[in-house]
Amino acid sequence: MTLDPFDLLGLPAAFQVDPAALARAYLARSAAAHPDLSDDPAAAGDSAALNQARQALEDPEMRADVLLTRLGGPSREADRTLPEGFLAEMMAVREELEAAGAAGDSAAAARLEEWAGGQRAEHIARVGAMFQGLTGEPAQASLKAIRRELNAWRYIERMLEQIRLER
């Protein structure tokens, strides 16, 4: 059985992760698993798994995805739903972005990047609140709502990447 990043690093499964606690857990476990310090032939693989776990928990989107999977929620492959009206709004933003690029309007591109950054922050806050609102055995409807929000957040992340590449 493969451990998820929370288990691998010995951290409580939560959306909010203390960066200092994450660093301490990673350093302690990676020191113990370092191939130069261990006679265990699996140490190199353990070290790689620890690196991947740290990376997953440092990134809020990846951490949310790991946590949702851990709670039994749908994967992004199984559920691609988005909030109502989201795609229409994103099409309008993309048209605005294309027009700014075609016109060489760096101020408009910067404004769109700032807007997308604000959208990202809103998604992080909403997902955090949704995870905090879960109690006991979460209902599938709640987990699906988190997935829908994560799908929109992922879309915004990709848009930010595109904007930054084009600038």
Q: Helices, strands, pairings?
A:
Layout: H1 5-9, H2 19-33, H3 43-58, H4 60-70, H5 86-103, H6 106-132, H7 140-166
Helix pairs in contact: 2-3, 3-4, 4-7, 5-6, 5-7, 6-7
Give a structural overview:
With 167 residues, the protein is mainly alpha-helical. It folds into 2 domains: 5-58, DnaJ domain (Helix Hairpins, Orthogonal Bundle); 86-166. Helix content is 71%, strand content 0%. It is globular and about 60 Å long. The chain starts with a helix and ends with a helix. The model has no long low-confidence stretch (mean pLDDT 91).
Radius of gyration, CA atoms, in whole angstroms = 19 Å
> What is the average per-residue confidence, as pLDDT, rounded to a whole number?
91
Would you identify the regions where 5 or more consecutive residues have pLDDT less than 50?
none
Got a strand count?
0
Q: Structural class of the helix and strand makeup?
A: mainly alpha
- Percent helix range: over 70%
- Total of DSSP H or I helical runs spanning 4+ residues: 7
Q: What spatial form do the alpha-carbon principal axes imply?
A: globular
Rounded to the nearest angstrom, the distance between the terminal CA atoms is: 44 Å
Count of spatially separate domains = 2
Quick structural summary:
By secondary structure, the protein is mostly helical. It has helices at 5-9, 19-33, 43-58, 60-70, 86-103, 106-132, 140-166.
What brief labels describe this structure?
167 residues, mainly alpha, Helix Hairpins, 2 domains
